[in-house]
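thought: user wants a sequence for this fold. calling inverse folding tool.
action: design(structure=
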């Protein structure tokens, strides 16, 4: 058994929150993460913030990627962050947001604990590298 086989794969939950029904980007990032060697769980469409928190806690994920295109990021993402804090999972979960988010809102999301906001056109390699460099080390 090699040293690499002993390392835990980075566990990621790719989640669609709210009524946003566009999930092409979520599928693309989930596949790219899988191909990069991450263990990926996809929530499916129309998840409530609490459902996402429950899935993240139950699956013990390292990374939570929230895909949102509805414009409701300022309402829904804080509920996810608060839920992770309530369950004591905030500190060891790297939270990412993907979607169309205005620059002023990106700043607010980062202040509340989102590690990064990736917009359309972000190179997949950049997103994967960010996860590898910032996912919590649980070895």
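)
observation: tool returned 139 residues.
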């Amino acid at each position: 058994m090699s040293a690499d086989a002993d390392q835990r794969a980075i566990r990621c939950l790719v989640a669609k929150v709210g009524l946003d029904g566009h999930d092409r980007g979520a599928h693309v990032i989930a596949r790219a993460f899988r191909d990069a060697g991450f263990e990926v769980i996809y929530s499916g469409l129309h998840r409530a913030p609490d459902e996402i928190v429950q899935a993240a806690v139950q699956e013990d994920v390292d990374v939570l990627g929230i895909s949102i295109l509805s414009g409701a990021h300022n309402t829904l993402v804080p509920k996810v962050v608060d839920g992770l804090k309530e369950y004591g999972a905030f500190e060891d979960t790297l939270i990412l947001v993907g979607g169309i988010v205005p620059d002023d809102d990106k700043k607010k999301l980062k202040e509340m604990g989102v590690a990064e906001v990736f917009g359309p056109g972000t190179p997949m390699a950049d997103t994967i590298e960010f996860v590898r460099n910032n996912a919590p080390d649980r070895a």
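thought: summarizing for user.
answer: Here is the designed sequence. The longest strand covers residues 11-16.
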